[in-house]
């Protein structure tokens, strides 16, 4: 090795002892009084961001390339939305107000009507039953007397017997049209409610049962329209699952000049004292005694459908309504695309089999 090479090694060793090394070519290029290429590029990005308010594409590309990223805003918290949705599902929907004229059709043992009077303070209630008189009604439901007393304790509330949902006379009053001067009948009922309609019977022919119940609903819709006040609604409640889904109640209503306003989950707990009643009366065992372990319809999932006249303007939510929601909303997101019914039908069949072993089940549903 020559003297020239040895001198360079000695200088490098001295520089290492002093804590520095020989500057590299890249370091020499980056040193200077003016900004280098990297600094100039960074300043250009800041200028673009200050003028447009948005980072440039080159900025996002360079940050991802260098392993750094701009601080992204935290994702919006969905906890409030979830809590609101859970609250909607947990709070029962009450589709009437206490002051409205309410007609109950086929009200069975009148426990639903009694609850409306006693716990919802309804003062203009007409409850109807299919049975021809009190004796026939009491034979089916021995406990009905207590419910009748609660209803008739209010002077403007009453119970009517021998009312057939398919042939009932209009609940209406005469009104004179301002433009034509003609006197017409106008429906008097703001809410017409038919809970768990069913023709009754023990037929095992599903197709026949479906057809009979569809005919019942179509005839009911025609008669109910004559009693429906302007802006009023017809509310029908059915169990979820087959065979009730086969009835296609929404299509039946559309063909009866009604529009589906919305639907919601029926929650029996919103009506203290209410108990589901069979069309043929109290469920009894083979000895003729009331079955202690009878199937309780009020515990089974059910859905209420709200119908209004086509092109009619629904009444706004009145004070005292359970949920003040938009008319087109539903608490079941799948309701518009198709009913999400679950497995209610299978549960029903299993429970019917249990009743057949020790009780006289009629297979019919009524409020």
TrEMBL record:
Domain 25S rRNA (uridine-N(3))-methyltransferase BMT5-like: 103-278
GO cellular component: cytoplasm
Residue stretches in coiled coil: none
Region (Disordered): 1-100, 307-367
Amino acid composition bias (Low complexity), ranges on this chain: 55-71
Domain of life: Eukaryota
GO molecular function, one term: rRNA (uridine-N3-)-methyltransferase activity
Biased composition (Acidic residues): 329-367
BP-aspect Gene Ontology terms: rRNA base methylation
Segments passing through the bilayer: none
Protein name: 25S rRNA (uridine-N(3))-methyltransferase BMT5-like domain-containing protein
